[in-house]
Specification:
Blueprint: H1 2-10, H2 15-31, H3 42-49, H4 54-74, H5 102-109, H6 115-125, H7 129-134, E1 140-141, E2 146-151, E3 157-162, H8 165-178, H9 205-218, H10 227-239, H11 244-251, H12 256-263, H13 268-279
Antiparallel strand pairs: 1-2, 2-3
Helix pairs in contact: 2-4, 6-8, 6-10, 11-12
Amino acid sequence: MVDWLAWLELGNKAARTLYAYERYAAALLRDWPDTDFADFADTHLLHTLKKYPPKSRHIVKASWNNWFRWGFKYARRIPGNPVDLLPDIRYKANRAYDLFTDAEVEALCALSTPDGELQTLMHWAGIRRAECRNITGKRIDFAKEQVIVKEGAKGSKQRLVPMVSTLSRAMADLFQLEGIGRDDYLWGHRPGGGQSVRRDSPISDTTFDSWWKRCLVEADVRHRNPHIARHSFATRLRRLGVPMEDIQQHLGHEKISTTSDTYVHADFSERSSRMREAVGDL
């Protein structure tokens, strides 16, 4: 398992993917501690997979498939892939995304410094939570009016997101008022609850979640998780007429189907308006 994870890390798999893969592989090893890697059969996998809820089984199966495919095809350590003998597991969640409205985005972006400026960055650059935590001053390129977003397990990949005027002004205010330098992290933290803000290291997930919840309370905005800001960003761009291919690049998706099927949504009011316009007085 350690060799496989090292192979994935060298292939620039995201840290969150490595964590999930290790956890699912470890569950299999805990269930069958006396079974060698080459001796795993579909029966072992079936009984462990049954312990997971139906909505998670396809994800677990996919991670195991990556592991055993590596062992069979690349590392040549096993005679075959036992996952090939498992049944097809298809699960498609019927998700109804509760996007932020334009008024809610405006309220969040209007919060006092530095909260409002950081909210503006999230809602007008579409960056992920981990990307927020790890972004530094040198990643805001005022000269070229772009945000340089680090991607991947170690930030070896990057994408460029244009800064609209709203975001450019917010970042200029943030840098001036907070005195942010090139190597400073934009999301600061106060160790031990003190008054002094430190920006020499990324904030933790827990600290970020606390900041996010506080912002929503102060802006009187109903709670959604931070990733919904990314969905709202994509949907807003599409509504403004930005081509899907451009939105794909802004979000950093490898496949445009991910952008169109998962991140761009039409809310009920939009669908209702288009239907009434099409039908007219009929």
